[in-house]
Amino acid sequence: MSEHYDPRTFQALTFHDKVPSFLDGSDTPRSYLEQCLETIAEREPEVKAYVVLNEDGAREAADASTQRYKDGKPLSTIDGLPISIKDLLETKDMPTQMGCEAYAGNFPTNDNAAVWALREAGAVVLGKTVTAELGGSHPGPTTNPFDPSRTPGGSSSGSAAAVASRMVPTAIGTQVGGSIIRPAAFCGNVALKPTQGGINRGERQATSMSTHGPHAGCVEDMWQVAIEIAKRSGGDRGALGLFGPMTAPAAAKPDTLIVLETAGWAMLDDKSKIAFEGLLENLQRAGITLLRRVDYPLIEKLEQTIVEAPAITGNITPWENRWAQRNLVNLKGEFVSERAKATLAKAEAMTPDDYRAAILDREAAQRAHAAIGNLADAAITLSCPGPAPLWPGDIQGQPLAPRPTGDAIFNTPSSMLFAPCVTMPLMSVGGMPVGAQIMGQQHEDARMTAFARWIIDEIDPVLVD
Amino acid sequence: MSEHYDPRTFQALTFHDKVPSFLDGSDTPRSYLEQCLETIAEREPEVKAYVVLNEDGAREAADASTQRYKDGKPLSTIDGLPISIKDLLETKDMPTQMGCEAYAGNFPTNDNAAVWALREAGAVVLGKTVTAELGGSHPGPTTNPFDPSRTPGGSSSGSAAAVASRMVPTAIGTQVGGSIIRPAAFCGNVALKPTQGGINRGERQATSMSTHGPHAGCVEDMWQVAIEIAKRSGGDRGALGLFGPMTAPAAAKPDTLIVLETAGWAMLDDKSKIAFEGLLENLQRAGITLLRRVDYPLIEKLEQTIVEAPAITGNITPWENRWAQRNLVNLKGEFVSERAKATLAKAEAMTPDDYRAAILDREAAQRAHAAIGNLADAAITLSCPGPAPLWPGDIQGQPLAPRPTGDAIFNTPSSMLFAPCVTMPLMSVGGMPVGAQIMGQQHEDARMTAFARWIIDEIDPVLVD
C-alpha cells in the first residue's frame, strides 16, 4: 500500500481549492468527507492513524456545512473542512485517552478551546488521532504512510500520518520538543509550530513550551486552520496569541536566510546532508543570500546556545510534567510505560535549582535569537535528522530504544526559542520524506507562512536515493 | 464566641517558636496538633472554615513528626507544622470539591505540588478549607472569626478564618485577583502573595495571575512554609520560582516607602482612611520617608496604570477561565451558581482582541512599576477597603450582591504587576481587622518579608472605633 515518496509528484489532499465548487454547488462538503472516509477505509488498516472515528457526527456536521454553502452563508474559510484531533485534546463527542492505558475509556465530554473554535468555524471534527503516550516518546501503533516499517514520528503520530495518507486535509498536532514539526517532516506534510502561546490550549495548559499547531497538505489550509482557531479562542493564558491576516498570506520571497546547523548537524546521515546542501544551492540559485555561522559571530553565538537545546529542553519538560506523571503512576502505575517512568525518575532526581538553571539557559538562548533578528529574513534548517527511522517495536528483555519516534534534535531549538516555524516537504532521501523548516522571530508566524509558500512554489525539491 | 479585634493584644497561633520545645522533648508536635483540634472543635460550629478534616491522618503524621524530633532528625523547619489546604488544591487523602456542587464527592486522590512538598517537609496536612466557588466570588459558609455576621473574605475564606481563629498556625490560600491578601487582611493574618510563579501550582495551572501563598499568625511561619515548599517543588512552569533564604529573613527597616492609593482610595470609608493615615504617621515617626504621587511623576504614572487594575484583571481572568467554566456549565450547569454564570457570560462576550488589549495594558503597568524600582525600598497601601463587609446571604428574588466576599480593589494591582506583597495586621476599625500591605518588585519576596517583620515588630498599630 505504501508509496515511494517523491515531492515533485506527491499530491497531498487539499481543501481551500475546493471551496469555490462548494459555493457554486458543483461539489459539497459531504461528498468531500465521503472521499476522506473512503481513503480511511482503504489506508487505516495499515497506517493505524486513528484511535476513534466519529463518522456519524462528521456526516452530520458535513451536511450542515453543505446546507450553509447552499445558503451562501459559510461560517468561515474552513467551513466543511475535515480535521482530526490529536488524542491529547479533549473532544465532547469522543473519548480522550492520550495514548496511555491508564486513560482507557476516559470520556470527559469537554471540548478543548481549539476544538471548540474549529466547530464554531464549521470544521468537521472527524476523529481522534494517535499520540505517543501522554505526548512523550513511547510510541503508539501508527506506521509511516510511505513505509509501514518506519515510525511516522511522534508524538503527533496519527495527525501526521492521517494527512500524509490523504485521509484528511488537516489535523491538529501538539509540540513540546519536536512533536509537530518532526512527524510532519517524516510524513511529507506542511505544518506550523506557532509562536509560543499562539493558539489557546484551553484547559490543557501542559508545559511551558507546549503548542498546538496544524498539519496540512498545503500552506493555505495550514494557515486557515490556525487563524480561524486563533480568531475564536485567542492565544494562551497571558500570551498575545497568533497574529496575522484572515486569509493565507501571499507567497513572499525571502532575500536572506540564516543557515542553522543546530546540534542535529553532527548526527545527520550523509544522504540527508547532501539533500539539504542541494536545497540550499537551489535557494541560492533563486537569488536568496545565505548567511552561515563562520561569517557572523552572532550566528555562531546562537548556534552555541541552541546546540544545548536538547539538554535544556530535556530538563525543562520532564520537570514540568512530573506532578501529573507522579500522580498517574501512583494511581495507575501498571498502565504507564517503562519509558515514561524512566523520564519521571530523571525529573524527580532534579532540584528546583536545576530547573531554574535550565530556564535561565532558555532565556539566554532567546536573547541570542532576538539578537540575529535583523541579520536576515528568517533561518532555515532541517526539520528532522534524515528520514523516519525503522521501528520494529520494543524487544522483551532488551534495553528500551531511546527515541522510537525519531529524534527531536532539529526541533528543540525553535521550541526553546518560542519561535514560529513551518516545515516544508522539499526533500526525499531513500524514498522517504525529509522536511526543511523556516524559523522566524516570535510573532512572525504569518511572515514564515508567506516565505514557506514561496519556497514550496518556487524552489525545486531535492531527491537523494 | 467572636472577639473584638485589637492588634495589640490579639495572640495569633504560632509554630516556629515551639520547635525548641520539640527538640528538647518538653513538648511534641502531637500535643500541638491536639491543641489545634481542640480549638477546631470549639470554634468550627460558628466559623465553618473546613470542608473536611482528616484527624486520623493528621494524628499519624504528627506522631511520625514527634518521633523524628525525638530522634533529633526533623525533616525541615516546618516538621510537625499543622497546615490546612484551600479546597482548590488536590490532596491524596481528602476530596477536592472547590466550593462547587458540581464537584461534590470529587476525590482525585492526587497531591498538588505544594501539598506534596509540605508532606515531604514533615508538615501535618490537617484539612481542606472552604473556598468561594471555583475560586470566584460566590461565597461558601465560612464566617469572619471576629464577627460571624461578616465575610472572612474570599476566595481563600476558610484558610483565612482557620488561622484567625487559632485553629491552625498556617494555611495555604490562592490568589488571582485578591484572594490571599484580602481575606488575610479581613481576618488579621499575615500572608504572602508571592511573585507570580513563585510557588509551583503543579497540575492546577489555572490562570496567568494565580498564585499559591501561605496565611500565618506570624511572619516567621509564613516565610518557612513558602520557602520549604519552594525548596521542594520549585516555581511554576517556565518561572524562576521563589528566591530567598531557608530561614525567615531578619527584620529590616525600610528607609523609604512609596504610598500607593490605587483605585481603592476613592471608595475607602472615612474611618479606614484615618486608620491608614495614622499608620503612615507612625512610620514617619519611626524615621521612614514616605513618597507620594503628588511629588513624583513616576508614582503618578504608576497610579494611573493601576487605577485600571480592577477592569484589566476583570477582563483577563474570566477570559482565561472560560473554557473550564463553559465545559463545567455544559456538563453540570444546575450545580453552578448564577454568579459564576454571569461572569462566564461576560467572558464569552469578549473577543481575542479584547483579551490581547488587556494583556498589553498589564504589560504597560508592569513597566510603570519597574520604573519606580529604585525610587524607594517598597510600596505600601491598604490590603482591603476597610473592615470585612456584612454578608447576610443572597436574597431570593433580589439581584445578586456583586462582591459578597469583599472587594479586591486594593489587591488587583499587585496581582496584575506579578509583584510580591505581604499583608500585615496593623489596624483595627470598628473592632475588625484591617490590613496594610507592603509590595516590592518581582522576586523581592524575601525583602518584603524582612520589611514586614520589622514593621510588625516596631510600628504601633492603629485603632479607630
List the helices and strands and how they pair.
2 copies of one chain form a homodimer.
Chain A: H1 19-23, H2 29-47, E1 50-53, H3 55-70, E2 82-86, H4 113-120, E3 124-129, H5 157-164, E4 170-175, H6 181-187, E5 190-193, E6 211-216, H7 219-233, E7 256-259, H8 270-285, E8 289-291, H9 297-306, H10 309-332, H11 338-348, H12 352-371, E9 378-382, H13 412-417, E10 421-429, E11 432-439, H14 445-458, E12 462-464
Parallel strand pairs in A: 2-3, 2-4, 7-8, 7-9, 10-12
Antiparallel strand pairs in A: 1-3, 4-6, 5-6, 5-10, 9-11, 10-11
Helix pairs in contact in A: 2-3, 4-7, 5-6, 9-12, 10-11, 10-12
Give a concise summary:
By secondary structure, the first copy, chain A, is an alpha/beta fold. Chain A has helices at residues 19-23, 29-47, 55-70, 113-120, 157-164, 181-187, 219-233, 270-285, 297-306, 309-332, 338-348, 352-371, 412-417, 445-458; strands at 50-53, 82-86, 124-129, 170-175, 190-193, 211-216, 256-259, 289-291, 378-382, 421-429, 432-439, 462-464. Chain A is built from 14 helices and twelve strands.
Structure notes:
- With 465 residues, chain A is α/β, with parallel strands linked by helices.
- Chain A has a domain at 16-233: Alpha-Beta Complex (Amidase signature (AS) enzymes).
- Chain A contains 14 helices and twelve strands.
- Chain A has helices at 19-23, 29-47, 55-70, 113-120, 157-164, 181-187, 219-233, 270-285, 297-306, 309-332, 338-348, 352-371, 412-417, 445-458; strands at 50-53, 82-86, 124-129, 170-175, 190-193, 211-216, 256-259, 289-291, 378-382, 421-429, 432-439, 462-464.
- In chain A, strands 1, 2, 3, 4, 5, 6, 7, 8, 9, 10, 11 and 12 form a twelve-stranded mixed β-sheet that branches.
- The longest helix of chain A has 24 residues, at 309-332.
- In chain A, 62% of the residues are buried.
- The model of chain A has no long low-confidence stretch (mean pLDDT 96).
- The interface between A and B is large, with 40 and 40 residues.
